[in-house]
Amino acid sequence: MKKLYKNLGKVILVTSICSVSMNAAAEAKKKIGFIVKQPEAGWFQDEWKFAEIAAKEKGFELIKIGAQDGQKLMSALDNLGTQQADGVIVCVPNVKLGSAVVASAKRNGLKLMSVDDRLVDGNGDPIEDVVHMGISAYSIGREVGTALLGEIKARGWDPKDVGVMALTYKQLPTAFERTKGATDVLNESNYPSENIFEAPHRLDNTEQAFNAANSLITQKGQYKKWIVYGMNDQVVIGGVRALEGNGIKSGNIIGLGINGTEEAINEFRKPVETGFYGTIILSAKAHGYQTSINMYNWVANGIQPEKLVYTSGYLATRDNYEAVRKDLGL
Ligand code: GLA
Known about the structure:
Layout: H1 2-27, E1 31-36, H2 42-58, E2 61-66, H3 70-82, E3 87-90, H4 98-107, E4 111-115, E5 131-135, H5 137-154, E6 162-168, H6 173-188, E7 196-200, H7 206-219, E8 225-229, H8 233-245, E9 253-259, H9 262-268, E10 276-282, H10 284-301, E11 308-311, E12 313-317, H11 321-327
Parallel strand pairs: 1-2, 1-3, 3-4, 4-5, 5-11, 6-7, 6-8, 8-9, 9-10
Antiparallel strand pairs: 10-12
This protein binds alpha-D-galactopyranose.
C-alpha cells in the first residue's frame, strides 16, 4: 500500500512538472510583425484590424509597424529582430528592396511573408521563395474595364466622345497589371484608341494622381465626358477630383477604383454624387487575417504556408455597395 502511495506521488509530481513546463511554453507568446507601407490608408487599417482578430484567436502578439520608406522598413525589421519576434508579414514601400528584405529577415531570425506587393530581385523578377498573398491583379483590372464599358453603354454615351484616363504606376507590378487589364479590355472592344490616355503618377496616393491627372486634362480639354481607372480607390479619387476641379460635371465622369475600403465608402456616402462611381472590393480579411493565421501556424506548428495565393475582387457601385458588402460579410 505504502509503495502504491509512493508511486502515485511520483506520478502526481511528474504530471505537475509537465503542466508547469507546458504553461511556461504557453506563456512564451509567439510574436508576429505586420509591416505596411501606408498605415493611414483604409486598406492597411483593415488588414491590421483583421490581423488583430487572428492574434486574439491564436493568442500571439501582433506588432504593427508603418514603414513609408526603405529606411523605416529596414529599421522595422531590425527592431523585430531585437524584440525576438518569430515572423513578419510585410507590404513594402518599394518592391525593389526585395533582396535586402530577405537578407534582413534571415539575419533577424524572422520567417518572412509578403502581402499585396510582391518582392522582386535586382532584375525585377519576383522572388519566388518568399511566401506571398496578393490580388489577381490582371483579371481584376479586366473586371474594371468591363464594368466601365457597361456603364458607358448604360448611360447611352458614345465612346467617340469619352476620354479615358488611365492612371498608371508602372514601378509596382500589381499596379501595372491592374491598369493593363482594364486597358486591354477597352482595346479588345475596339474602343477608339485615340481617346485612351495614360497619366503616370510618381507615388501611389491621391495627391500624386491628382497632379498627374491635371496635366493630362490641360492637354485634352476637348473631352467633356471621361472614364477614370487606376491601381486603387485613392488614385482614382485623385483623377476624379482633378476632372471636377477643371469643370467636368460629376455626372459626366465614371471613376472606378479598387479596394472598396473607407475611401470608396466615404465617396459613396457623400450627399452630392461625385464622379466616383464604383470600386472592386478586395478581401482585406484574407490579406490580414488569413496571412496572420498562416504565419502563426508556420512559427508555432511548423506548417509551411502555401507559397503563392491570389485573391479575387467583387464589383460594387454607389447603388449597391451596401448589399455587396453585406453579402461579403463586411
Ligand atoms: C497595393 C495597393 C493597395 C491595395 C493592395 C491590395 O498594395 O497599394 O492600395 O490595393 O495592393 O493587395
